[in-house]
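Much of the work behind modern protein science is quiet bookkeeping, done one molecule at a time. The protein below has been through that process, and both of its lines are reproduced in full.


***
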Amino acid sequence: MAIKSKGSSKKVYIAIFLLVILIVATAAIIYVTQPGTVKATVGVYVGDSFTYSIMGTSTLTAPEAVETPGFSQYNQTDYYKLTITGVNGTSVSLDTLWRFINGTEVTGKQTIDLSNGQETVSNGFWAIYSSNLNVGDLLRPIGFDKQIVNATASQTYANSTRPRNFWFIESQFEDTRDPTHSTLMDVLNQIYFDKQTGMLDTLNSISYYNNPLKTEAITWKLISCTVWDV
């Protein structure tokens, strides 16, 4: 990952922290390649780009609750842009640019196999799927943990209506510093992605903490792309 501008180490920490939260949806996955004829269909092309806004909101219910370090910086994002740089079989390569309001930029690269979800960068962007998946289809046709498309609905954009897929996952994590195993974080991830391209449209990641009681939510939302008018 290449870094631009002085003082960007803090932004790198924030970038890694957010992307780690984003991958809680795949934290428990063990990729096992299995024999089969089902393969992913890539729905993006070299040169396609997708730009997102990122917003964080928190509700501190307990008097002693505080935001997770770095959380307030999510709202300092100007935009997050990714550009498709290569397609090889079922593998898609992309460049990412995370720009903050103060001008700091964090760049990265990623290659992900849409058939099994394997990535070259474990904390990189991952929310791209096979084209034209239907309800009940596996998100990763081979080697995945059997997560499926839960629903499909029409999404209206500036000049068009497009089908959009949806899936969700709920996970629970323990604070290993608590010997009673009673300090918990429950995470709900809701992922909406364009059916035709397989590209992320909206991601809601909501974390519920029980000790002290608080809720933190991160939302990614597509704000522009080169494939259709958002």
Remarks:
- The first strand starts at residue 3 and ends at 4.
- The chain has a mean pLDDT of 87.
- The chain has one domain: 3-225.
- Residues 3-225 form a domain with the YmcC-like fold fold (CATH 2.40.360).
